[in-house]
Amino acid sequence: MKNSSLKSLVVGCVLVMAFALAAVAGQPKIGVLIYKYDDTYISTVRNALAKALENKAEVVMQDGKGDQASQNDQLDVMIARRMDGLLVNMVDAQAAAGVLMKIKNAGIPVVFFNREPDLNVLKNYAKAVFVGTNAADAGKMQGDIVKNLWDTHPEYDLNKDGKFQYVMFKGEPDNPEAIARTEWSVKQAEANGVKMDQIGQTFVCNWDTALAQVAMESALAANEGKIELVIANNDSMAVGAIAALSNVGYNTQGGGKFVPVIGVDATEQAIDAINRGIMSATVKQDGEAMGKALATIILNMVAGKPNLDGTDYSYDASGIAVRIPYSPYEGK
Amino acid sequence: MNEAKRFNWAEWFLNYSLYIILGLLIVSVVVWDRTFLSWGNFANIMAQASTRGILALGVAGMIVYTGTDLSAGRILGCSAAISASLLQSTTYGARMYPGITAPLPLILPLVLSIIAAMLFTALNAFGFAILNMHPFIISLGTQLIAYGALCLYIDSQAGGAQPLANLDFRYIEFVNGSFDLGFTRLPYLVIYLAVCSVAMWVVWNKTVLGKNMFAIGGNPEAAAVSGVNVARNIFGVYLIAGVLYGIAAFLEAGRVQSVTTSTGLNYDLDAISGCVIGGVSFTGGVGTIPGVILGVVILQTINYSLYYLGINAYLQYIIKGVIIILAVAIDMRKYIKKK
Predict the structure, then answer these.
(1) Topology of domain B38-338, per CATH?
(2) How many CA atoms lie within 13 A of B321 on its CB side?
(3) Chain B residues closer than 8 Å to A15 by CB
(4) What is the pTM of this model?
(5) pLDDT of B338 above 70
(6) How many C-beta atoms lie closer than 10 Å to residue A77's C-beta?
């Protein structure tokens, strides 16, 4: 027992050493706090960011595991390690005040991204910037897609009542992006002149495929043949809804019965589904562009250059936030 | 642990092998990155371990009974929501209670937080002591109830579900402040942990309640036959755990400065891991307060050093998993030896 424990220790130590990032002299140290690694969209940002910072900075990245308390702990460590710059993707954007205070006391330049803290809070620190999207825009773009589908596919109005009967899949109950997308997709469709009629309650499925599939199965059990449209806050849930639909003979490859499904994110899986004709459209949140912008901005800040030097972006009305635009994707 | 043992190197090594291994691990971290050895890091680790430590002090008693508590994390979430909602800045427009226009004394939310936690632990105690359910099962149920209550509470805000944030500055200072010792800072959180630990040491070692708790954990039938009121003892231990959960929740809300529906998720597992590493045996009747604290601090040191070395996030899970398995393996060996 003793010996084997010691052996495990030795193996453990070797692992620790082997995987620790080698310090590269002369390059700035950039700490990256990610809200959760296993989020499809954030993974795109993460990979684009790592690629953009390659050979330009020593990057230390941590997984917040969807837990703000863990992220606070990770921040303490980043500050103790005297990072030259920080990129922070808050787990809970409302906790940004405390996080900002710690960073400000340490005097480290910081870019918050993706999950949007109160910009008035960020204004308390001269070396803080936000890079994100405009939460309402993704919803509005979905609303425009709804209008487009309604106009080009009169057959989608199954009961011919002149209204689009839809079910809604929402991300998390208290997430601002989820709230904005849920609200604006329908508002924009109505503003475009489409009469919208929701079936049942909004399904809150925490951005999750499996939960959305279960919810869609129950919706179909109750209302099969009445659902004319599925709107989801993200592609993972849209894909879950499609899985449920295909189990009862809808949205299968090669025609037949079809319920239009709209998501957000343009994940590989969703793009593939759209190209195969089993999903209608998605809204692309450009993770690659976000990753590149983050890398450029933080390196500028660390080097003391103007923040947006070398990018095509400009600040929005707040003066400290950069918005990466969305674009619709409706297939090749 | 048991006093009056003849000194035996093999036994000593077995009893302390985990600490020796972890000591070596820490030494190897320092060898890898010498900056790790600093008072600032030490203060950070202790502060991070504080709320988890207080929670673990509560869970430890249940493990002594050969039980466990899967609901501790969600109970903490509920109580944290109560604390945070009552202590939002009175200048914050979207606060949960717009009726509170003058800042409340800090003690009131603390007391309410404790009461809420005690209600839940009383439910656990009722299931365990009166209904004779296994603590695993009853706390599994309580966990869901607490989570549902937390979601309802957070969703009941005028503006719909949103994180409880923008806390009163006095509260943030009370939790996150520290004494400047010159060479380092001493976070208040560490003092709160120390106070709770001393109080629990007294409960475990100097009171009838504590002594009976160990008797029941070691052999419930024998304890009952020798006149111990088992049910009353269980309620006592669980209610004290409730007090600790309430305190931990109050401090955690102030530490993170925002409470959401996911606050407290998996904290119970951290607390249980800390207890196990610290030698509180799942076979019952064995455990010490210094052990619990040491276990939690060791777990936090592992966390901190994995972050510090910038280890791949997924690999961190594997390393932690290996360490917990090692801990339990050694824990089992101690039990086998005893038999």
Answers:
(1) ABC transporter involved in vitamin B12 uptake, BtuC (1.10.3470)
(2) 6
(3) 315, 319
(4) 0.79
(5) no
(6) 24
